């Protein structure tokens, strides 16, 4: 299953600036008033190509609540997490790990929706995290004819961010297990397990680090990349090949046609739309859930776009993909993986 949306994640310094675009404008310091709602997006969802999709989401939230809705795009995952945890934003589209980090900081942060798999249910509501290498180097990562993590030690590694589920937590946890490490701390620092560690600050950025040759190995997910290329072979398993389209836009315009191979692949629960329930009423929350689970939203390509759509949606439409109401209980598997 290949899905655009997104990952999970958070990293960088809290001092990185937040850019605001909107349906109105606001400051992160101001919070949402009684007639205003602030919606914060992760860096992977803050790209220019997603402007129309972000506007579609905020338009539906305005339609449901009657309130002015401000869009907060970010260049740093931790800014988004701090914003929803503190209540400066009342709504956020998060990755699973980003949500869990925010929930750890404030139990008022709760998921209200996620998107289904192609079945239209939660049974296949997941995407994939990969540990990738350049296709030209892939044979070096085989042991007894099978792809293995054994030869990644000492390499130059690119992650998305150090609190990204699919861009760090899941792949780092797998590496920790494979090498019997005590923690993932050394994986996050240059000169420890890896000769160099870099962070792309988005899934796109991590993939570019690999394809440009700055990194030997990289972690990223499928959701954020299907706009830029296509998967070959079984995209759910090691051996999946990802090839950048010949007309891919920035940041992939300099690596068009290049290919990478997954030496490991992991399933990740789909990301949630969350609220800070201390800053938004239960009534407004229920109105938002009702609006976003409506047929009009399900059939809106700005929310669920076909894989070949020219305009990027929030998610890729595969089968009966749609929003489904959830609670924190649904994320128990991710809580268990991350130990939170």
The amount of helix comes to 10-25%
Q: Helix- and strand-based class? A: alpha/beta
Distance between the termini: 27 Å
Chain-averaged pLDDT? 88
Overall radius of gyration = 19 Å
Q: What is the helix tally?
A: 8
Largest sheet: 7 strands, mixed
Number of strands: 18
The percent range for strand residues is 25-35%
User: What are the low-pLDDT stretches, counting only 5+ consecutive residues below 50?
Assistant: 1-32
Protein topology:
Elements: E1 18-22, E2 36-41, H1 51-65, E3 68-74, H2 77-86, E4 91-93, H3 96-105, E5 109-115, E6 126-134, E7 142-143, E8 146-147, E9 156-159, H4 165-178, E10 196-199, H5 203-211, E11 217-221, E12 229-232, E13 241-244, E14 259-269, E15 272-276, H6 282-292, H7 295-298, E16 304-305, E17 315-316, E18 323-325, H8 332-338
Parallel strand pairs: 2-3, 2-4, 9-10, 9-11, 16-17
Antiparallel strand pairs: 1-3, 4-15, 5-15, 5-18, 6-11, 6-14, 7-8, 12-13, 13-14
Give a quick summary of the entry.
This protein is of the alpha/beta class. It has helices spanning about 50-65, 75-85, 95-105, 165-180, 205-210, 280-290, 295-300, 330-340; strands at about 20, 35-40, 70-75, 90-95, 110-115, 125-135, 140-145, 145, 155-160, 195-200, 215-220, 230, 240-245, 260-270, 270-275, 305, 315, 325.
């Amino acid at each position: 299953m290949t899905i655009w949306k997104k990952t999970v994640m958070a990293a960088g310094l809290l001092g990185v600036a937040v850019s605001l675009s909107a349906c109105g404008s606001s400051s992160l310091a101001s919070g949402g008033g009684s007639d205003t709602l602030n919606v914060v997006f992760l860096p992977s969802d803050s790209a220019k190509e997603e402007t129309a999709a972000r506007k579609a989401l905020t338009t539906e939230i305005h339609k449901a609540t009657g309130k002015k809705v401000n869009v907060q795009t970010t260049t740093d995952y931790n800014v988004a997490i701090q914003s929803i945890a503190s209540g400066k934003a009342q709504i956020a589209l998060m990755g699973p790990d980003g949500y869990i980090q925010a929930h750890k900081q404030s139990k008022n942060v709760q998921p209200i929706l996620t998107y289904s798999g192609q079945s239209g249910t939660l049974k296949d509501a997941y995407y994939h995290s990969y540990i990738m290498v350049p296709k030209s180097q892939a044979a070096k990562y085989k042991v007894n004819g099978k792809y293995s993590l054994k030869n990644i030690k000492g390499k130059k590694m690119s992650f998305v961010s150090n609190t990204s589920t699919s861009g760090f937590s899941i792949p780092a946890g797998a590496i920790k297990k494979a090498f019997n490490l005590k923690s993932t701390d050394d994986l996050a620092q240059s000169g420890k397990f890896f000769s160099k560690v870099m962070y792309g600050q988005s899934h796109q950025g991590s993939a570019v680090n690999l394809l440009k040759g700055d990194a030997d190995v990289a972690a990223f997910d499928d959701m954020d990349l299907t706009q830029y290329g296509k998967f070959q072979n079984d995209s759910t398993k090691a051996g999946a090949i990802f090839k950048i389209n010949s007309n891919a836009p920035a940041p992939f315009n300099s690596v068009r046609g290049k290919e990478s191979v997954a030496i490991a692949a992991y399933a990740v629960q789909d990301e949630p739309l969350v609220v800070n329930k201390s800053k938004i009423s239960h009534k407004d929350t229920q109105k938002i859930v009702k609006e976003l689970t409506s047929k009009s939203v399900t059939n809106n390509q700005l929310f669920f776009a076909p894989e070949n759509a020219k305009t990027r949606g929030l998610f890729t439409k595969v089968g009966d993909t749609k929003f489904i109401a959830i609670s924190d209980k649904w994320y128990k598997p991710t809580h268990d993986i991350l130990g939170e």
